[in-house]
Structure formats: structure tokens, C-alpha cells
Amino acid sequence: MLDFSVPSGSEKEKNAVKRHIQTALHHHHQHHRHHHNPKAWDLEIGYQTRQVRCTRSDGRNAMLSLCTQDNSPGTFQSCIMPKDCETSDWSPWSPCSKTCRALDLSPGYRFRTRSRIQAPIGGGKECLALEEKEACNIIGDLLPHCPRYVWKSTDWGDCRVAPLLSQQDRRLHNVSILCGGGVQTRETYCIQVPDDFVPLHRKEVSRPVSRKLCAGDLPAAVQPCSIPCPKQCSLSAWSSWGPCVHDNCMEPQGKKGFRQRSRQVLAEAGSESDGCPHLLESMPCEDPVCFQWCVTSEGVCIPTEGACGPGVANQTVVCVSTEGRRVPGELCSDEPPPAQVACEGACAGGCVVDSWSPWSLCSHSCSSKTAEGRQSRTRTILALPGEGGKACPAATALEEWRSCNDHPCIVFYWEASPWEPCVEDPSAGANGTSTSQWNGTASCATAGTQTRTVTCMKMNVGPVIPKRCPDSARPDTVQPCLLPCKTDCRVTPFSEWTACPSTCLPVNASIPTQSRYRTTIQRSANGGQECPDTLYEERECEALPVCPSFRWRTHKWHPCTLVPDAVRQGITGPGEACGKGLEVRGVSCVGEDEEPAAIGDCLLWAGAMPQRFRPCWEPCKGRLCLQRLVQVLRVHGLRWHAQP
User: Fold this and answer.
1) Those residues with Cβ within 8 angstroms of residue 427's Cβ, 6 or more apart along the chain or in another chain
2) Where is the Spondin-like TSP1 domain (predicted)?
3) CB of 115 within 8 A of CB of 88?
């Protein structure tokens, strides 16, 4: 390797670096703010030398003439004389960063700085530290206590399913009614914990501060949640049609009545909007009754002759209302069933037959020209007859059929809409009503009412006049409810304004702004005061002075500077001045008024200094061709070897 570095020790005398100084001087005018050192612009070009020897392939030295001159390494070159970095004096120490007493007893720090006046060139010493830091207020017993900062969180927002689904299917992004797993979010912010001297009303909500002031883990801002999916209402089967009854047995009206059937709710729907359908259907009929005879029990069969055979059984008959309640017998207008009924007592060795089963469900809920309702009941042979015993009835006698639901298929029912939102009840008075009348507890909620629309519907037709449906079965259209407490929106006070630049404004830069914000910690609900529209504010900073404008001014490149002739000829013998060298140019700093300025100003405001020197080449006018000698040297394995 070729080494043009400056040798050390005793080699300095043998291999000295001699300087050929070329100074790039420029005329300068004193600037009214700067004391300018003209030497800061000077570049000094020197030269370096080294020894070159010719070696054979076995490593031994050979005469220089045996090595080709075309490929010989250079024994000298131009170089830039080193200049060390220069800096300004230290600035005063900054205020101590620790102004209060913290729990961790860590010290504070203060700083001082200095600026670079001259950049190092030519391998000169780099700048030492431009900033120094030292501890201060290490004990701090006399300092006030530091403020404490903690994380705060707003209430969790509504559970949303769309953010999870939209990642998989973009078509679901705008769907508002979704269910299943979702996420809910909240905002987190940092506040200063108020001390004991702050009034109570100011402790309730603290203004947010920079998040950098809060230590510890940030509270979770997202958590999983779930929205229950709506379930369909599960209903039982319809009961059998009941007897023809008056709409209001307390006020019987003519011979018009209704038959009714009902069904029960087995499982409620998931939401009120998906409520269960109607549970009661009515059918007009004639000759209604409000009370009827009912057999409540039947005694054992008592044979009239002997121990078996035909007999009678006593039965208990009572008068009941349509709701099944027992009432005085005079309210039943029809003749009561007989107190005794014929029966058959099983004889020894005879056929034993079970009692009749209950009547099956009617095959049709009503009758038409093409369909008629029928139902059946059966009985079972329990024991076959013995020798000489009574024979069993025929198979046809073990089953009975009868007509049912022979009324026409004209069905009506009441249809109720979902309840409207709860509104304040004007009759409750100006001060409202305590909720204790509804749930036995005191609360800020007030009494209200809910309404809904109830319509008489004809099956498979639509709305009809209300008198076609029994008024006694009409659902309520008004019900009491509780108005939940009004919840006003709560927001934090505005944070402090962010800092504006404190020095100056670069040329052509946009006007800086500062901002502040506040956070919603409680959303309004149930008609409470709405949240303010403005949660973020921004304003322009106060007018700042324009930063000083400095720029680098470059001058023409000087001619290529080679190693001095005396040095070059003393090493290689007489020859023309050509080959590698260095060329330099002047670089100066000027202000906005084009007046010369200190180099430190440009280093601070104008960026990196432009290149002040570069390699150059001075072409040789003649060239010695030694191609044949090169071929001979290659055959003998001779090559150049350079040493510093």
C-alpha cells in the first residue's frame, strides 16, 4: 500500500513535509456586528514524499532502471496542510433543569454550549464537544415538591363491530346494525395531580398536559366487547278455540260474542324492535255465554245389579266463568249436566276396556267450503275376555270422531307497535315525580309516559275498524315509564398552548402555529347538554424576527498547484512539471446585504461549507514509450515496491 501520511520519530528528518503555501486572500470589509479573522479563509498547500524501490519476484531489491517508468508509483504529491477546528468561547451555564424536589432524588443538569468557528481541514483535529453538561441541585432539600402527573381515561365508547368486519369485507363497513364481537375505545390523557391548596371545584377536572410528563404504562385504549345478536321470539302452539263469550260479561250486549285462542311466549326476543307477534286471536260468534257448567270430577262406577255390569257414576258439576272461576249456579243459564251418568263395570272374565282419552287437537282452526275441522278420541283394551266372559267391542267402537271449529275462518287480532321513547308526563308537575312510585327507590329520574299504536287487524287482510276486535283484549296504548337522568357533556379545560419558536423565523418559511386541545370525558345522554363543537384550537404565533440570512460565496478555482520543481527534480531528476496536484478556491461568508461576515455565521445559518479544494491534473507534453522494456521486466518478474 502507498502511504503519504506524515512520518513520526527520526523519519521526520529524512522524509519531511515541506510546504508550498498558496494563500487564497480576499478583500473583506468590516461587518458592523462581526470581528472577522481573515486567516480563517486561508488554505495552505504542501507536499508529501516517499521512497520507491524496485524488487524482484523473490523479494530482493533491484536497480530502479529495471522497473518500468510508466507504472512507477508517485514519490511525491500535493496535500492540504492540516488545520484544527476552532470554536467560540463557552456560553453561560443554563438554568438547572431540576427546580423541584422529586421522589427519586435524581439530580438536575445544566448545560453550556459553544459554536464552531473553523471547520477542521486536511486531517486537522476535530472539534471538541460543543456542549457540556454537569449535575446541579443534587440534594434539593430547599426546593419545593415536584408536581405529580398521572394517566386519566375517558369512559369507554359504544361497542362497534364494523371495525373488525371491515378488514375482511369492505361491503360491511357502513352497516350500522351488526352484532357479535367488536371493540370499544376510549381516550387517555395525562394530567397534573392538584395539590391540597387547590379549590375543590378545580380538582374535579384537570387540564391535560404533555404526555411526556406521565410515567408508567399507558392505560389500555382499546378493549374487546360484544353486542348480543337479536333472537327470534319463541312461541308455543295455539290453544283450542274457547267457547263463544261476550266481550264484557259484566255488560252483555246482544247475541254477538267472540271465540278466542291464545299462545304463550317461551323465549323473549332479543330486542323490543323484534318483539313477539300477537298472542291472542278472536273470532266472531253468536249466542255467547259468560258462564257454563263444568264437570270437575267423576266417581267410580257402581253396578245397579250385582257386582258388575251396567251401573251409574256420580259426577260433580259446577258453574264456572270464562276465566275458570267457580260462580253461583244461577249464573249458568243452560241446564246443568246430569249428576249421574251411565257406566259399565267390568265383570270377572269379561273384556276390560280403558276410559276414553282426551279429544285430540282439531285438524283445522276454522271451517270453510274445502276444509272442515275434526278431532278424535280413543280407548284401549286392557284385558281380553276369559271363557264365557263378555266380548270386547269391535275395533270401530274403540275410536270416536266429531266435528270441531265449525265456525268460519274470520280471525281478528290486535297488533301493537313498539313503545315510543319515554317522554315527561305533564301531569307530574313542574318538579317531576319521585321514582319511588315505580321501583321503590329514590333517584334523579322523573316519571314519564310511553305510547304506542294499537290496530285491529283481520287475518290475511289488514287493518279494520276497532269494533271488529274484542275491546277487552285491547292492549294498553299508554304506560308509565322512568325518564333517565339527563347527563351533560363534560370536557377537560383546554391544555396549555404549545410552544412557539423562540428564536427567529427562517426566510420564506410559513408562519408557525401553536395549538391546544381538550378531551371529552363524558358524553351527553338523555337530552343533556351537548358537547362543544370545538375540541381543538390553533392560532398563529406572535410575529418573530426573520432569521439572519447568510450564504456562502465561492470564488474561481486557482491554477493547479504541483509539488515544487526543486523537490520534484531532486527526487526523480530533471523532467517536465506535470501530473497530479491540488487546486483551491476562496470561500467567503456574506450577509443579506452582500457584505462579508464571520465564518461562524455561515456555519450556523448557511449549512455546510462548500468544497474549497479538489484534485487536479496537469497534462504532460511528452511521454516516453517503454512498452518493450515493460515486456522484458514482466518476463523477469520485476515489480515496483513503494515504502513511506
Assistant:
1) none
2) 85-137, 351-409, 489-545
3) yes
